[in-house]
């Protein structure tokens, strides 16, 4: 089968936007994956979110949650575009053959028991059936797809859990719709990521768990997401790359249009050993990944929190045209920490130009910023900081051609600062062609309120000097790549 | 004045446990620092938390919040042990002389306008008066002291803030009583730290902001905290050390009894420049701090979140006797990430011994852990994990003499895991002489519930693989130091 550009994207689309779905192995038992998945889809269908036709397949059941249940795929009355398979591994080839007869286009195999436990032949058989019939396969041994707009949701982890006390808690939630696509080789990390994104109110555009990656891989998904208008940034968790050459070719094209962020696990010897026993994949020499990612413009991150922080920044702010950062603060210590963290990540926090300093001095003379403020860089407005001071100082550094990005290290604790400064900073930043990021420290009400308000107005806000510096470093790295490629002037 | 050991601790005690307090500059104006401070103390006094006698001093007011207000310190009827000064800088020497006449022991100068704005002579005058009268001085230019048990609270940042909409939010809260002492050179970072500690339910034993550090410095405080039974771990934010030799001598003694964790800002050239304009202190060559901290057993951290994560771990778990860590997980990807993060911090995640593996295999044969679990290291119980599996696997590694610490990477998303496993893990860990740390990923209800439950039962729980690895690395580093010093066998 030839896979031309564009072609692949069309092959992948039915995983997210199928006209019809059949769940093979739909079950009545509440704890079974086949039940949870069918129930998710049935609820989404009844709410009008899922537009696709929905079919349950299970020879032992005649009705399921109000839907007729068919003994086999072949008995389903209409066409079936997407087949979700949740039956034991040994029955999967037969289901695949049925799917081929129904001319299905996309298969998600949730079931485990394939190459990850040494059953390579079984997996190869499945791949062969899919290839012969022109069907694309996601999985096996995965949690599949979540699309908050079309309502496709194959996550079988219980959305809530009831404790032994009888209390019910949100356990594996779905994030709201947004602009971040998330691809993961680990289903468990995928579930954790959705939990994290929900709690931090980060919206998702498309979510995919690859599992054993017997057919559809990260390159296929990148090709689809390249054209996807809902997706502004792609973040992914990988333990290995399946087809290095093709991955790089595709990634190079994608990163010219939208940022791609990768967390590659199995970086150390012991980690690589663990990865081998996890998905059987060879993690490879870490330095090779470093070089490959850099060459195709993928922003590499080193930890879980970085993955989300960087994803958030890149989805909300433009890349930086250079490494020079201005820090505006009302808090001496945190201002210094922000400078340290920037410099340690290869950024520069230079003394401001004479022109900018002169402007700040005029603001002092007019009584707009206090005479004891520090006007080097960071600009320290001190505990006397007001909304106006932040606005005026921000104007100065946004106008300074030597400054490429701004960090607002605005601690809400100082008495005269109000929440209105958030709106005014956001308004100025919207007009600017350089990134503006915010940081406020604290974990009680007003800290959380201020950060959420910044986020909502398009200024990504972070919880610590190290987080905001990491995010800014990613905007600088991506900007440098785009300039080198001639995409950014 | 001779400052013998023990002597210093007695000089410092009145800052936290005074028999009487006078606030000079107590004000009726709600937004003034002199009002906020007096009100904090008055409220604590009325609630019965503050046992000390409390006096307001202000010549323009006769009664303040129900307390008589005196025109000067000299007119206060009883003795005054602690004087809190909140008057403009130029009036401070006169107040100091009055304090000397009243035979006060401890002075907190909140007021700014001293060496940080070039008024070195004024600051020297103040120091001289204090020294001549045998009074110890905290500040100037600081936010002072917070003690959750005695009710001494000189933080003038408004505890709540009213937005322009009329809504009131918690803005600068106080944490609950606990076992972590926090020392800071930056008042702003101090306020942020209290906010962070409150939100993450980390208890504080004593809080001190040094400001210009004209007299009382970090070495004095360490000497006091060494003997303080309420304090199990000391965490501090520094931009510089005042008296290197004495600091190291004191720190060496303290770290033999309880851990000390330091975040030193101004690490980079640009950061050091910023520190200079902040508190006028010379940050010094960063490598020298590295060597000095290592020599006296101080655990150095590199960022804000690390400071709290490491402080939390050290306050709750014993140091590790070696670098070998076992990881038990139900989540393949996060397990690998934990291994990577441990190894990148100098820890080892070795294959388990043949004996331990044999025990795990017997558990498999008995059907207690699944046949497809990975029993290398990490031990991956897979998505089928149950409470029992965690308990049995933990027993094996706690019994293994080659394993020095355990990370429970327990993601709550898997269907069969209940909250009871937290209690059972904690019970086993309590009997062990090796540290056990937990990690669960997610930011919605059950993730937060599980982490809080671990915390409450004495197992510090963290939000990401990198955080839990950082915490474990600190327990290993501190254990290594204590072994070298012969304190830990």
Structural account:
Two copies of one chain form a homodimer. With 489 residues, chain A is of the alpha/beta class. Chain A has two domains: 7-313, Rossmann fold; 319-484, 3-Layer(aba) Sandwich (Rossmann fold). Chain A is 41% helix and 17% strand. In chain A, the strands form four sheets. In chain A, strands 3-4-2-1-5-6-7 form a seven-stranded mixed sheet, with helices on both faces. In chain A, helix 1 (7-16) crosses helix 6, helix 3 (92-101) runs parallel beside helix 4 (120-133) and helix 10 crosses helix 16 (465-484). Chain A starts with 6 loop residues before the first helix and ends in a 5-residue tail after the last helix.
């Amino acid at each position: 089968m030839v896979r031309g550009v564009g072609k692949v994207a069309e092959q992948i689309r039915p995983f997210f936007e199928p006209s019809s779905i059949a769940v093979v192995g739909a079950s009545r038992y509440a704890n079974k994956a086949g039940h949870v998945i069918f129930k998710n889809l049935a609820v989404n269908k009844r709410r009008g979110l899922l537009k696709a036709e929905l079919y349950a397949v299970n020879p032992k059941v005649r009705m399921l949650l109000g839907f007729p249940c068919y003994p086999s795929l072949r008995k389903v009355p209409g066409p079936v575009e997407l087949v979700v398979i949740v039956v034991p591994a040994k029955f999967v080839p037969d289901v695949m053959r049925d799917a081929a007869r129904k001319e299905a286009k996309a298969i998600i195999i949730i079931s485990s028991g394939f190459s990850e436990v040494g059953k390579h032949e079984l997996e190869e058989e499945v791949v062969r059936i899919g290839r012969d019939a022109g069907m694309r396969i996601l999985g096996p041994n995965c949690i599949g797809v979540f699309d908050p707009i079309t309502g496709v949701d194959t996550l079988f982890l219980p959305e809530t859990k009831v404790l032994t006390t009888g209390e019910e808690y949100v356990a594996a939630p779905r994030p709201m719709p947004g602009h971040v696509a998330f691809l993961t080789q680990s289903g468990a990390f995928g579930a954790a990521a959705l939990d994290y994104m929900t709690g931090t109110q980060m919206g998702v555009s498309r979510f995919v768990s690859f599992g054993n990656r017997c057919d559809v891989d990260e390159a296929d998904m990148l090709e689809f997401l390249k054209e996807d208008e809902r997706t502004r940034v792609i973040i992914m968790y990988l333990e290995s790359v399946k087809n290095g050459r093709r991955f790089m070719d595709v990634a190079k094209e994608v990163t010219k249009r939208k940022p791609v962020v990768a967390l590659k696990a199995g970086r150390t010897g012991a980690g690589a050993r663990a990865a081998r026993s996890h998905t059987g994949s060879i993690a490879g020499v870490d330095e090779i990944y470093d070089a490959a990612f850099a060459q195709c413009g993928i922003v590499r991150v080193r930890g879980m929190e970085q993955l989300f922080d960087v994803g958030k920044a890149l989805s909300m702010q433009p890349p930086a045209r250079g490494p020079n950062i201005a820090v505006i603060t009302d808090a001496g210590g945190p201002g210094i920490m922000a400078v340290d963290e920037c410099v340690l990540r290869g950024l520069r926090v230079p003394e401001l130009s004479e022109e900018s300093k002169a402007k700040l001095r005029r603001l002092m003379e007019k009584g707009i910023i206090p005479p004891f403020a520090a006007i080097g860089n960071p600009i320290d407005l001190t505990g006397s900081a007001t909304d106006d001071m932040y606005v005026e100082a921000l104007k100065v550094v946004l106008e300074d051609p030597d400054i490429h990005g701004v960090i607002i290290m605005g601690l809400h604790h100082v008495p005269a600062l109000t929440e209105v400064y958030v709106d005014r900073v956001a308004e100025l930043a919207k007009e600017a062609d350089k990134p503006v990021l915010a940081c406020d420290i604290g974990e009680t009400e007003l800290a959380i309120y201020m950060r959420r308000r910044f986020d909502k107005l398009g200024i990504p806000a972070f919880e610590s000097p190290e987080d905001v510096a990491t995010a800014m470093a990613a905007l600088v790295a991506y900007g440098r790549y785009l300039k080198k490629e001639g995409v950014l002037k």
